[in-house]
Specification:
The structure holds two protein chains of two kinds. By secondary structure, chain A is an alpha+beta fold. Chain A folds into five domains: about 1-140, HPT domain (Four Helix Bundle (Hemerythrin (Met), subunit A)); about 140-280, 2-Layer Sandwich (Alpha-Beta Plaits); about 295-350, Helix Hairpins (Orthogonal Bundle), CATH 1.10.287; about 350-530, Heat Shock Protein 90, CATH 3.30.565; about 535-669, SH3 Domains (SH3 type barrels, Roll). Chain A has 22 helices and 21 strands. In chain A, strands 6-8-9-11-10 form a five-stranded mixed beta sheet. Chain B is mainly beta. Chain B has a single domain, classed as CheA-289, Domain 4 (OB fold (Dihydrolipoamide Acetyltransferase, E2P), Beta Barrel). Chain B is about 15% helix and about 45% strand. Chain B contains three helices and eleven strands; from the N terminus they run βββββαββββββαα. In chain B, the strands form two sheets. A six-stranded mixed beta sheet of chain B has the order 8-1-2-11-10-9. In chain B, β10 and β11 form a beta hairpin. In chain B, about 35% of the residues are buried. Classes of the chains: A alpha+beta, B mainly beta.
Amino acid sequence: MDQFKQKFKEEATDLINDLEEALLLLEQNPNDKDIVERVFRAMHSLKGGGAMFGFDHVSEFTHHLETIYDLVREDKFLVSADLLTITLESVDHIKDLLFSDEITKEIENNHSVLITKLSTLATNDVGKAATPIENQDNTASTQKSFYVFFKPNPDVFENGTNPLYLLDELCELGESRIISHSENIPLLDDLKESNSYLYWEVIIVTDQELNAIGDVFLFVEDDCELEITQVAEGNLLADEKVIRYLADIEKESKVVDIQKLEREISKNKENKTEQGSKESTGTDTSVISSIRVASDKIDTLMNLVSELVTTQARLSLFTEQQEDAELDAIGENIQKLSRQLRDNAFSISLIPLQSIITRFQRLVRDLSNGLGKKINFKTEGTETELDKTIIENLTDPILHIIRTSIDHGIEDVQTRINSGKPEEGTILLRSFYSGTNVFIQIIDDGKGLDHEKIRQKAIEKNLISESTQLSKKEVFDLIFMAGFSTAKEVTDVSGRGVGMDVVKRKISAIRGDVEVDSEPGEGTTITIKLPLTLSIIDGLLVRVGVTDFIVPLSAVQKIYAVNKSEIIDNYTHTVVLDEKQTPFHNMREFFTIDKEMPDTVQVLVVTYEEQSVGIVVDYVVGEYQAVIKPLGKHYKDQEFISGATILGDGSVALVLDTNKIIKQSAEEV
Amino acid sequence: MEEQINTNIKSYLSFKLGEEVFAAGVKNVLNILEMVKITEVPKAPDYMKGVINLRGAVLPVIDTRIKFGMEESEFTKDTCIVVCEVDQDGEEVKVGAIVDAVKEVIEIDDKDILPPPGIGNKYKSEFITGVIHLDEQFILKLDMNKVFSTDELVMLQNNQNETNNE
């Protein structure tokens, strides 16, 4: 049972996420029927599932919510800000109910408070909302005829389902005609009294959508043969011929032939294509298009793929030495396959940013209400996909950035009006791909960062000295230093002095980078740059001295061969490449390797802060697929190394972070 | 591991650094490797020799001689890497220690371990948790968690420099 409970909790998490998302959407479009429907369905599933798996308090509580949204659904109740606030609180409460280890006093109190609120809402406002909306909708409502084929599996009773109740529920939706089929009942000797042998066909005329009919069967979907088809617009049961046809069928105990039925009615109906009218219930399609997989299975897959890639490198090295044409061909094929397998396995572990957006929306909503600010949270490009591990580690930093934006960035309504801005502030979360990086930007139109204030603060906190000359960018970077917080007083939202430095650290931990740009009075943009994936990269194997290094291929634009005389004793640290002056950093100098340099060295041109910068290495060995492994805590000070990888011969090569190398090397020169 | 009946008897791996013999609790020792090719990590302290491939994982390797302030010496056929697992702020961290030679596993009762000498000790007393007197020889028992801790590495080095300068 525990196992099922666990499963339900997982499912409930999805449902709750969906519910929250739908509620936030509903706030934007209070009149959208589809969203109300989505909210209702999520609640309905929560209630049903809760009852089935013994979460009675969840089920009972959700029932109260459902009652209200049923009214909303029927346009007897208006969606109001109050309603949404209480509903969101209720959703939080459901989370508590589901995931707390024990039900504390606090949760219990909350429980009764919320139920009282909900019931008052339900009774109070019904009358008010009912009149205006109903008038509009009744005129527009159209009746449709559906054909339902419902054949429960023989063991349906074992789950405690009574098909007759379902039929009753179905008939409540509108006018109906049921044909029951008893031809499957076996002779008495073979009859098992615990089995169900009947099946039914129903023609139902209702103004509800197909989904509403599907909802009736929501919990037996897997235990029956079910077919729901919209056969016609309008009332089919008003048609003499159809009634006669159905009567005939019942007499001869035949199954309704939908096509024939459709032909009967097609004469006076518009030409509707079969496909258009035939819809499977929503859940069916989603089952086929995606499956749920435990994340540790994906982790295992990724590990196996990593090992395969490493082993493949050994194989490549071996085949090279053998000089056997056939072995070569096999080796190359394995290489191709492992590359494809790697890409595929990666795409499995990618999830869209959308999956964490709801939490941000929630934060913006709750926090802006609490601070009396008006904020519109917009998102762009949330379909951008990122590695699962990155997404997991990204939520907290982004939450913190948004929190800071709301607290310090966006001004209150009065200030905004005074400075000629729209009273509603905007926070935009934007995400896009660029090369092999993913960028996430959080842009607000608040008061921006005060350049001079940051400088003063940093001097005050002894982070820099009075005389330090800093560029604009460097000043902004100060806010990421530990112990820096510009808030004048500590609020419960931000300004505890821990914050942006933690953001920076967390993002660095997933090999990302974070930058700030700001225009006083205009707003602030925080850009997070992330690698697409953490574990395997396409790299360039290079050698400096006796040591092998991997440079991410994505960073390298071009490779030039240069005579060593151009590098050695070159005090300008620039070299002319393609008739362009290019500053360079000699890795031998940087790594303090004394050995004699080869006569010809190679310069990798990489992009650093939108400039081309050269990195001088002895020799480029070739392309290499590198499985990145952590270097461990003992080398935490070697920031310019992002990890290590095992080469084909079993030795270790270090993976370089070109940005950090150039930054550090530039500081040393 | 430790026996139920007399839990005071524990096993130690003894190894040589120069003429000195040290002992490490076997519960910290995972295995012993022959010397392999070590990939040097640039810009790291001297005693951080580099990294090696330990069955597909990357293992940092420390030259214990340099770390203990001894002269660096050529590796011989006896030189090996003792793979240890040490506790770092509640996290298990693996690290390889290069030693001149591994001797044996000895079993010592806790009561036979003498307290470390307070004065005249070459090594920081925090790292030596006791002295074992065995076969006319003194064996220094090490606190592996402290010796190979990521923070202490820096501290010990600084300390060594200071003493060298004096």
